[in-house]
Write a structure and sequence with these properties.
single chain, mainly beta, 8-stranded antiparallel beta barrel, 3 helices, 20 strands, elongated
Length: 257
């Protein structure tokens, strides 16, 4: 039934296109709406990500290798609501019909398909979901460039990042001027250690996955780490630690600029 409704919307869209009018906006980017749970007081975002130009997103729970046009994640602290966007069709006047599938529900033997609408507001770049929820556009600030530091009782951890383009490490030992995506220094009263970032597996908005090696032991297997950037205060999550930015403007000022 839901798929039939979506096909009806598709026919309407084709009719509107045939009648002329301005070209629809091919939506691409990320939109978020903050949600606070009354029971816990926890605030987290509901997320919509889209790329109407091509199915470039790999589904996390769908068939292996399944590509989609994006996703809608309306999860709570108690349940996952993650919808992969299978099709999206412009209906005119910045209104879009979205056919999506919650593969987690499909795995449990339930119908996970859903047909919704999104309206794009060009003046504010916002998305309105089903005429009830308004999502703000989130620019990709490319935050993983700079220096972060954490100090503790007998030492410190410093992370130098350039995940979007390789840079030259210091000429001094142990880096020896190698081309890399950054380096990590750990110092304490007991020992010092150094890592070089040799590979960036992925960078997406405020999350990244990197591989590092010890310069003195290049034959060792590279170690994999996840990084997370907090745009509210500019901090970096690395290896279960929170590092503060060094001489780096906050996300707010970057966005305003």
């Amino acid at each position: 039934m839901k798929r039939t409704l979506f096909m009806t919307c598709l026919c309407a869209a084709v009719t509107l296109t045939a009648c002329g009018g301005s070209e629809p906006t091919l939506l691409e980017g990320r939109w978020e709406m903050p949600v606070t749970e009354p029971e816990t007081g926890i605030t987290y975002p509901h997320i919509i990500e889209l790329n109407m130009n091509a199915p470039t997103f790999v589904s996390e729970s769908g068939p292996e290798g399944k590509k989609t046009y994006g996703f809608m994640d309306f999860s709570t602290t108690r349940r996952i609501y993650h919808y992969d966007i299978d099709s999206i069709v412009p209906l005119g006047n910045n209104l879009y019909a979205v056919y999506s599938i919650d593969y987690n529900m499909e795995i449990m033997g339930m119908d996970g398909s859903c047909t919704d609408t999104l309206r794009y507001l060009p003046d504010t770049k916002q998305l309105v979901y089903m005429n009830k929820w308004t999502f703000d556009f989130v620019p990709d600030l490319k935050p993983f460039k700079g220096e972060w530091e954490e100090s503790f009782s007998d030492g410190s951890t410093t992370v130098h990042l350039s995940l979007y383009q390789k840079i030259k490490a210091p000429d001094e030992y142990p880096y020896n001027g190698i081309e890399c995506y950054g380096w990590i220094e750990y110092s304490s009263s007991v020992d010092d250690s150094y890592r070089i970032i040799t590979k960036v597996e992925q960078v997406h908005y405020n999350g990244a996955t990197i591989y590092t090696v010890f310069p003195d032991y290049p034959e060792d297997k590279p170690q994999r780490f996840d990084l997370s950037y907090n745009p509210e205060n500019g901090t970096l999550e690395y290896n279960n630690s929170t590092l503060s930015p060094v001489n780096k403007p906050t996300s707010t000022s970057e966005s305003d600029k």
